[in-house]
Design a protein that fits this description.
It contains 5 helices and no strands. The chain is mainly α and 245 residues long. The radius of gyration is 76 Å and the shape is rod-shaped. The relative contact order is 0.05.
């Protein structure tokens, strides 16, 4: 601190100092008021912003709670859907396995049916061959049966004719009774037996020599005309073993 010469100088000094301090104070006060106003404005803005942020925070909290609740519900739904889908997937896999097994069984059955079909076709072909052979044998048997029936009819006709001739021979023998013809009849019977001793199969071969106009059951017109010689009567008598009178 400087030393003053007198009191007046010291007063002026302190007065001047006071004025400077007062001026600084006024400036400080003004600055303080301005700062205070700015702070109040800032405070009001901060409070307003705080209120807005609180409101927004409350809104976000509420929205968060809502979303959280919604998320939990959706999460539960998703868990349930996932469980259902897993169960459905399991059932699908089981069905697929069953389908694969069923397809294999069908393929096996198809193969068995194809083999059975081939065997059936082979059996059918063999049956057709046997049937054709049987039909041919049947035709041959029918033909032989027809021939046999024709032969039976012819034999019956010949028997009837022989019986008629036998009766006529007996009648003629009763009328003739020649004693001197006995030896001749005996010789002719012997020769006739030798000439007629042919196998039975010749009857079938001789069947073709019979005229077509001669049907079974009709007598021969040349026999019914009774133009038979005495020697033939005697020969037939020997063959049939007719009693001699």
């Amino acid at each position: 601190m400087s030393k003053f010469v007198n009191a007046q100088e010291e007063i002026e000094y302190w007065k001047k100092k006071y004025d400077e301090i007062e001026k600084e104070f006024d400036e400080f006060q003004q600055n303080s008021e301005m700062i205070e106003k700015e702070l109040e404005t800032s405070l009001e803005q901060a409070e307003k912003l705080n209120r807005e942020l609180k409101t927004r925070n409350n809104h976000l909290v509420l929205e968060n709670e809502t979303l959280k609740t919604k998320y939990e519900l959706e999460h539960d739904d998703l868990i349930s859907q996932i469980a259902e889908l897993q169960e459905e997937s399991k059932r699908c896999n089981e069905r697929e396995e069953n389908y694969v097994k069923y397809i294999r069984e069908l393929e096996q059955k198809n193969d068995d049916l194809e083999r059975s079909q081939r065997a059936t076709y082979m059996s059918l072909a063999e049956f057709e061959v046997k049937l054709n052979s049987a039909i041919e044998r049947n035709v041959l048997l029918e033909s032989e049966l027809d021939e046999k029936e024709n032969l039976k009819a012819m034999v019956q006709r010949l028997k009837d004719e022989t019986r008629d001739l036998k009766q006529e021979i007996q009648v003629r023998e009763r009328e003739l009774r020649p004693d001197n013809d006995k030896a001749t009849v005996t010789r002719r019977c012997s020769s006739f037996r030798v000439s007629t001793a042919t196998p039975p199969n010749d009857l079938t071969s001789k069947r073709t020599s019979i005229p077509n106009s001669e049907t079974p059951g009709k007598p021969h017109t040349h026999i019914k005309s009774k133009r038979v010689t005495k020697s033939k009567y005697l020969s037939l008598n020997c063959l049939t073993g007719a009693p001699k009178s």
